[in-house]
Specification:
alpha/beta; six-stranded mixed sheet; about 40% helix; globular; binds S-adenosylmethionine
Length: about 300
């Protein structure tokens, strides 16, 4: 790690080798950014699979999407050009996990019936009665235990996960199912069925500027006060405290007056975070979706 982030390797595991496409799609609900950012202006996002960048391009004058992983950046470029979604390393790992679901007693027909519901109260009851079984709980907790995850993830990435991750994730899933209608939730289908989106890119996506860089370095060399919004994915999960501080300083430097920052994390919130929108994000996964003024990052 020369920069101070485990993402630098472009791989989820510790094996040496070429950077890979890690994410075939994104697991971040852009409705968070839509609610948090004023339209227009210049926005910085993390490229990942390009989903957020393309959504931002619909409402903002200019979108810069940076990624530290050249393979991931090239993939985002292909998606913007209209190439179909493919499965990355994360989707392959999740496919392995889903293959075990029949062992928990889950049947495809039951799952499809659940995902067709649109009343959160009915979903919650269905979840409790048919899916949140003892075997499912034990299976997920084993699958998401450090001992199992070590096979696929580097220590740097694992260090960012909360203790008892299986139980924490089950809680986040249940929170989502009792809050958001399943029928209109593409993230529930992506997670539980492995569904990829077939939506073509919007025309505005061509305006996204892709940059191969880590976010802190890119922002440090950007003009002062030149961005009106920042959405930084969960790039600090797996980064050192020094990189975190550097990124916050760089955001403060590049932020225009009134700029807003969205920062996600798998971690559990440490205490009360007033701007935590994790429960509003339909992608189920997050412990923290922190929405706050960039001015908070100024020393
Ligand atoms: C943090 S990961 C996690 C996946 C993400 N939550 C999603 O749903 O797509 C997303 C992307 O961030 C990129 N990344 C990680 N740290 C970065 C950094 N410091 N600067 C720029 N890109 C970074 C990774 O290469 C990856 O493509």
């Amino acid at each position: 790690m020369t920069l101070g982030t485990a993402w630098e390797a472009g791989r989820l595991d510790t094996k040496r080798g070429q950077p890979r496409v890690l994410f075939g799609r994104m697991y971040e609900d852009p409705e968070i950014e839509r609610a948090a950012f004023a339209p227009g202006g210049r926005v910085l996002c993390i490229a990942s699979a390009g989903c957020t960048a393309m959504q931002l391009a619909l409402r903002h004058d200019s979108v810069v999407a940076v990624d530290i992983n050249p393979a991931q950046l090239a993939y985002a470029g292909q998606r913007i050009a209209g190439v179909a979604m493919a499965r990355g390393t994360a989707e392959q790992i999740m496919r392995f996990g889903r293959a075990l679901l029949p062992l928990a007693g889950w049947k495809l027909a039951t799952l499809r019936a659940f995902l067709a519901l649109d009343d959160p109260a009915a979903q919650h009851a269905f979840w409790r009665e048919h899916l949140d079984t003892r075997r499912f709980r034990a299976g997920l907790d084993t699958l998401l235990s450090l001992a199992t995850l070590r096979a696929a993830y580097s220590p740097g990435l694992l260090a960012s996960l909360p203790r008892r991750f299986g139980a924490v994730m089950r809680g986040r899933m249940e929170r989502c199912f009792r809050t958001h209608p399943n029928r209109t939730n593409p993230y529930a289908r992506a997670l539980l069925l492995g569904e990829l989106s077939r939506d073509p890119p919007p025309r505005e996506a061509r305006r996204v500027r892709l940059v191969h860089a880590d976010a802190a370095s890119f922002l440090e060399r950007s003009a002062a006060a030149s961005f009106h919004a920042f959405t930084l994915s969960n790039i600090l999960d797996g980064a050192t405290a020094a990189y975190r501080e550097r990124l916050f300083r760089a955001v403060a430097h590049a932020a225009a007056p009134g700029a807003v920052v969205v920062l996600r994390s798998f971690g559990e919130p440490a205490g009360d975070i007033p701007g935590n929108r994790a429960a509003d994000d339909r992608s189920l996964l997050w412990g923290v979706v922190d929405v706050r003024p960039a001015a908070d990052f100024a020393a």
